[in-house]
Structures are given as C-alpha cells and as structure tokens.
User: Fold this.
Amino acid sequence: MSHVRYPSSISKYKALIEEASAKYDVDPKLIASIILVESGGYAQAYRAEPQLKTGSYGLMQILGTTALTPPVSWQGTNLDQLYDPELNIDLGTKYLRSRLDKYGPELGIVAYNAGSPYRDGQLIQTNYLDKVEQIYQTL
Assistant:
C-alpha cells in the first residue's frame, strides 16, 4: 500500500479510504484524489444533475442512479444515506474499481466522472483526469 499524505480536509477518512482500498484493490492515493476533486472532502456535498434527474452525493459525489444500478447495486432506499462517509467511500470505490477494470487506468478515471470515456463513439475531452493527477502527485 502506498503512503498517503492526507490533507486535513480528509484525514479523518483515512481508515475508511484504506479499508476501501484494500477491499477493492484501488490505490488509496487515487481514492483520496477523487474525493478531493469531487467534494473537497465535504461529506454533505450535493450537486444537482437535472439532465439525469438525480444528484451527486457526498465525498465521492455518487449519482443516485449509479448507486442503485450495476455494478454498484446498492440496496438502500434513502439516497440521503449516501452522505454517510463510510457508505459513500465504499460504494464510490466499488464503482471506481469497475470503471478501472472496464476501461484501464486513465480512461477508467475519466469514466468514474463521466460514466463512460466516450460519447457517440468519440473519446470525450475533459480536464478531470488532469485534476485527479495533479492532486495525486501532492499526496
């Protein structure tokens, strides 16, 4: 397991990140980087996603629809539970693992944010990977 210099905004989630890292075989620095890009470490973060008729919840900004469908397949009934850091990091890392397995390391990170790295058969252009990589290098 790589050593992570957790910034104060997420240091209280260190044990949860490392547990999810071990459970899903995902680098804890990558999990921490995604948390910092997605929510800045704010567990109550919410972003409305009107085009998807849902929202993104918590530290890893999990879409309600993503949580409830494969490969995540969470059995919860109240989307507000996604604000719970333990549940959010577990489900977010499970989803991240599925994207990495399907698309590989770089495109998998893009797919975590966009659902797929492709739109209409074309690779999408995004700076999300750059943001994650920049933070990763600081941890």
Remarks:
- The first strand starts at residue 46 and ends at 49.
- Residues 85-103 form the longest helix (19 residues).
